Amino acid sequence: MLLCLLLSTAPAAVSADDVPVPEPRPEHSTPALPVPEEKPAVPATDAVKTVPAEKPTETPPVPAPPTPTAAPPAPATPPPGEPTPAPAPAPAPAPAPPPPTPIEKEDPAAFEACTKELSTLGVQFKPLARIDDGEGCGIDRPLSVTSLSSKVKLEPEATLRCDTALQLARMTRDMLEPAARLALPEKGALTSVHHASAYVCRNRNGADDGKISEHARGNAIDISSLEFEKGTAPMSIAKPEDSDVAAAFQRSLNAFACLYFRTVLSPGSDAAHQDHLHLDILERNGNFRYCR
């Protein structure tokens, strides 16, 4: 029965003629675009002339403004009521060094008397040509001395002024030989005096500058040792507390040398005179002597 109902309710078959057909749409025609009219060709004479571009006018460079210069600072103004200080004086130039002392001229009569006494004492010497080494160094009438008497040599040979040789010969005869016989009898007779320096062109103490040495004028000699028949006695530092005979002899030599020479620098008197006895005849006012 159910089947009968289903069959009775089924829709009837639809034919093709029963399907509605849509009406055709009317054709819409696309409007035609307007065609532009051709313009007649422009004659050649009417063609646009090309005008060359003008070169830009060169603008001259603008000079840079001058750099402002800072004004110098104004001088300090002293407080009111105070006087203006005077400017500092310019330093004085260094004084020029004094000219060298000229070579001392020997008096002919005094020189003749000096050499005559040397011969009387038995000193062996010979005259030399005038020495002039510049800068004040030199001897007007130098002597080459090889002995201080007929028994005592001077070694090595010494170039000296006559006055220097004469004072050394006098001291040797009057004081040195007698004192040595008294203090050092075991050494025998004195045979020679050894020196370390006579004439030499230099400044005092060998310095680079300063006053010229008396050695540079032939006025000085440095005694280094004494030679005896049986030994040598070197110049040495004799301290006041040294009580042996050798020290007493050295102190005596230092003392009596000041009777003949105007300058005596004994061993140890300064750094430049440690191992020799410096003697010179430098003249000073009032016959002043400098003995150390």
UniProtKB/TrEMBL annotation:
<dbReference type="Pfam" id="PF06904">
    <property type="entry name" value="Extensin-like_C"/>
</dbReference>
<feature type="compositionally biased region" description="Low complexity">
    <location>
        <begin position="10"/>
        <end position="19"/>
    </location>
</feature>
<protein>
    <submittedName>
        <fullName>Extensin</fullName>
    </submittedName>
</protein>
<dbReference type="InterPro" id="IPR009683">
    <property type="entry name" value="Extensin-like_C"/>
</dbReference>
<feature type="domain" description="Extensin-like C-terminal">
    <location>
        <begin position="113"/>
        <end position="292"/>
    </location>
</feature>
<feature type="signal peptide">
    <location>
        <begin position="1"/>
        <end position="16"/>
    </location>
</feature>
<feature type="region of interest" description="Disordered">
    <location>
        <begin position="9"/>
        <end position="106"/>
    </location>
</feature>
<keyword id="KW-0732">Signal</keyword>
<feature type="compositionally biased region" description="Pro residues">
    <location>
        <begin position="58"/>
        <end position="102"/>
    </location>
</feature>
